[in-house]
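so i finally got all the pieces together for this one. its two components total, 720 residues if u count the protein bits. some of the lines might not be protein, just check the labels. i wanna see the whole assembly predicted at once instead of chain by chain like last time, that was a mess tbh
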Amino acid sequence: MPKRIYNFSAGPATLPYSVLEEAAKDIVNFKDKGIGLIEMSHRSKEFMAVADETEALVRELLEVPENYKVLFLQGGASSQFFMIPMNLLGAGKKATYLNTGTWTRKAIKEAKLFGDIDVAYSSEESSFNRVPEEDEYTVDRSSEYLYLCSNNTIYGTQFAQFPGKGSMLVCDMSSDIFSRSLDISRFGIIFAGAQKNMGPAGVTLVIIREDLLDSTPDNVPTMLRYKTHADKGSMFNTPPTFAIYCVGRVLTWLKEQGGVAAMQQRNEEKAALLYEAVDGNDFYRGHAEKASRSLMNVTFNLPTPELEAEFIAEAAALGFDGLKGHRSIGGCRASIYNAFPKEGIEKLVAFMAEFAAKKG
Amino acid sequence: MPKRIYNFSAGPATLPYSVLEEAAKDIVNFKDKGIGLIEMSHRSKEFMAVADETEALVRELLEVPENYKVLFLQGGASSQFFMIPMNLLGAGKKATYLNTGTWTRKAIKEAKLFGDIDVAYSSEESSFNRVPEEDEYTVDRSSEYLYLCSNNTIYGTQFAQFPGKGSMLVCDMSSDIFSRSLDISRFGIIFAGAQKNMGPAGVTLVIIREDLLDSTPDNVPTMLRYKTHADKGSMFNTPPTFAIYCVGRVLTWLKEQGGVAAMQQRNEEKAALLYEAVDGNDFYRGHAEKASRSLMNVTFNLPTPELEAEFIAEAAALGFDGLKGHRSIGGCRASIYNAFPKEGIEKLVAFMAEFAAKKG
């Protein structure tokens, strides 16, 4: 293994090294068949086996009920922002949205093209530093769904519990899928871009309850209908074969690590280490309210923007990469997804203490 | 290099081995920076350089004029079938389509959702075995564009010359882009899925004339507007970084081979070899009319379906893979894109002669 930097990037993000090694081998010569992975027809029995295995791993690790389809689509989570209301809403139909960050704001904008959108909660005025408690919003009975983003990458907030309100949840889990156990039956649609906890950019996982496949209005193009992809096992057209393959490799690794429950425990331990470092020293200040803190993206500030720039540069020189906060809020952010090693956090915490002692 | 099969698959298809080797190296450790290619933020300076280089290669190799944007989108060519009319048409607007195969038929179906579609030519009744001569169709003056598919992968037909009619062409070049020289200025939009002549599945190249970016109706979702992606250099959301990287590697290889004109000459030689083998023996019969023959996909039949099955199986055992015709027309098909080596065709031709001598 070459010397690796500690990659705190929010996505595309660090992946298990064993997955990279396996991908490198299969790219030039898939299972010694004399053909590279990315050269294989998506309809070859070899690739069909890869796709089937990947779907089976999603089902097993997330305990996906029988009445849900697992799809691998393109266009990123951003394409789900419009596909969901395009498929589920229409004239006279209503949905409720919780506005907890940039990605929900974007989703709300697209949804308004297709229905009557009720924004039942927003933390925009406090720089999206929290997610709501249950008693802070109401969901109209006529709402088709309650939409939320489970983890807000930019602001470092996360729903510790999912809402009990609303007849059906629709959730953007791009940055925390496979990081904790879930009760899928509460959800109508779960979607997630792969490039944080699952693999490379270029594929979006969609888990959709089967009865929703038939609600699409007639004028929706073929490629934008969930049913098109569900009916063809995500092979209506050529799927992003490499990205799907990588998701399968990452999920195999995740299973070897003990599955989602074991990963959740590790994520809690990893995040606790980092939040202790933030809270244990007046020099650092967490951005998110404590009850809303994310286990995936830890956001914090230093006393001044100048010190933040110095901190980030010094950290980078030591091999801690990607600590700069999103350009919309500044500050620092450490993204510590499933594949991020605990030792990287221990080392960062030590560096944070040193830096604070020196500059504080 | 491991022993490689001859991969005649229609796509995903064979790629230069040097590209596979380079990708394998960069996936585990990009330019020895201690981070894998697919782990890097799309906004890192390293990946931005990859994306810029890839765009520059497209511009240089295809001689793309200044007033065209080069985009890297997701969703496959199939998503362009609806995005084009969604962006360029609308109530009362008209477009003309030439129906020369499965992919144009699908494009026509989507276009009808957005405008008045005139199908000015169809070879469907003769199993799409030809493309039209100029005098076989007319284009209404009120048509916004004339739509065609330059090369029909399934049927093995290709436009040897592009139509002179219509004020502007819109063209699906998924299976012959970068295989021959072009005059881009005739086109409003050119698009192509990468998985035939450019790279792996998962990215679609779109070349669009700038003045078309402002014609999109207001109710089109953000992600489906060409302008969204043009304004952000294809980085409005996370792009499929690995696929874009691979396209850059393939185009670097193409440039080393002498560029598009040199590739065109080689493609003509390669196809001639194979068509001579088809024509030189009564045992084989080409599917496409001679004037419409494709340089990329050579389709042919044997005297009976049983002999075809035998031919395909025997060929596969010898390392000639993917010769089975598309399920919609049966028969045999040899896809010989840019990266397919001439020696593979020479060997297949020798096998065809042997097989005909034995069974004919």
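Chain A has two domains: 21-256, 258-359.
The longest helix of chain A spans residues 259-279.
anyway lmk what u think
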